[in-house]
Amino acid sequence: MFSALCRRLLPLAIGACFSTSVFAAAVPAGHIANEQARHIATYFPGRMTGSPAEMLSADYVRQQLSQMGYESDIRTFKSRFIYTSKDNRQNWHNVTGSTVIAAHEGKASQQIIVMAHLDTYAPHSDTDVEKNLGGLTLQGIDDNAMGVGVMLELAERLKDIPTEYSIRFIATSGEEEGKLGAENMLKRMSPEEKKNTLLVINLDNLVVGDKLYFNSGKTTPASVRKLTRDRALNIAHSHGIQAISNPGLNPTYPKGTGCCNDAEIFDKAGIPVLSVEATNWSLGNKDGFQQRAKSHAFPDGTSWHNVQLDNQQYIDKVLPGRIEHRARDVVRVMLPLMKELAKAGKIKHQ
Hints:
- Helices cover 38% and strands 19% of the residues.
- The protein has helices spanning 2-8, 11-14, 21-26, 31-43, 52-67, 126-130, 141-158, 180-188, 191-195, 222-238, 263-268, 312-318, 322-342; strands spanning 71-84, 90-104, 111-117, 166-172, 197-203, 211-216, 243-244, 273-279.
- Helix 10 packs across helix 13 (322-342).
């Protein structure tokens, strides 16, 4: 009844359905993430960088974080990407992205960043348009409303818990155009802030893939991998959740490391990262780009950017229960991991 009621309300009013810590404590893991992801996918399809849908969804996420009690704002940035026409002419498309940032202040100067990209794919060519990739109707429940939903649930459940280290919750923009938002965010960080960033956690593509993967960055020290990637796998296995790391089939992406998302920007800068994703690195594809075995439901073994496949109605039909189960599984791993990494204390009395 709660779910049905919330989905009938207007976008701005619906925020109240997620705002109380009493609700967060009473509902099972993943429920908030599931509701938030479905809301974002339903009310803000076509969240292409710089589009009205992206700006509205960014403001929605900002409001959610503000209602939780966080100081939250939107940072805009200007960038561009290349669009290729049928006759192979290339033109620059200028965009203005909107990145949402909220702060959970800790006692020490060090911080952990939890990040998920809010934008959906914008067609990069006339061929993309013909193939119905991206555009105004792409819900992007897998890529990447669920990542944002999990980030919001973590923020909700951690808001009243004092921590030694600060936590930054960031919904990035421009990921689909070449990690533009993450790149802009890194440029804005001072040398001291970069030095004090202990870890960047990136949540992306959590639904359609066969298995959950926890991957470190290539430059992430072994000691940090043990505390982050390996610890995440241990927590998952203790709950009976199937989770592994990249098996290392491609020397470009060594065993246990990830690739090709916003976390890569920070990895190249030497900042430790943990990528959380659902895919399948063991299908003969050596880059993790094939999410699952090819089938009638997923002819290419992926749902990426496809309007007909990356929407909640289709996924509910062909993978019943998957959206809810993945929301639950990821939160059951990430919440205790976040508490450990940020050195959480006791919950404040209201």
